[in-house]
Amino acid sequence: MLPPAHISYTWAALSLVQTRLNIFPDADYRLAALAATAPDLIDKPLAWAYFYKRYKSAVLFAHTLWSFLAVLLLLWRKFPQWRIYGLAFVGHAILDRLWFFPDTFYWPLRGWRFHVWGKRGSEQSEIGNAYWIAFTRRPELWIWELGGMLALGWFVWRHQLYRLSNLMDFVRMGKVRLDE
To answer: pTM, whole model, 2 decimals?
Structure first.
């Protein structure tokens, strides 16, 4: 899944949780976006620098069960006001459906290797080409991305971010108006 879809689904879920369950009222949507994309922000530079050429993988250490558990437990126990960001981080694993990539998700329990993208139809020598090939050979990925666009559209509509004042408040403060 591409970063915009991770962010869109996370924002939509946070919006629903804030209004329906009345929790995390002070959450900053900018930090939620950062947490939702953090595994990719950590692993992709590592892949570009070294791991992709050697292991043909761009889902690495930050995509393991251990990283998700560590972040969630740390934030849940030591920083309870940041729990929502731990949940957004873990949401990345759910949206990527990482259990389908057991070499990475359960690393190192299944060995010291990571999931090889070639097994999913995107074997390429360069990481940039791997994304293109994955999206052209696996059309079901477009459904998830389309869902992300719909979630973002719903979020913008729900919080009236098409109004410049609401959008500027959202950008400046990272909050939406919850008085609906």
So the answer is: 0.85
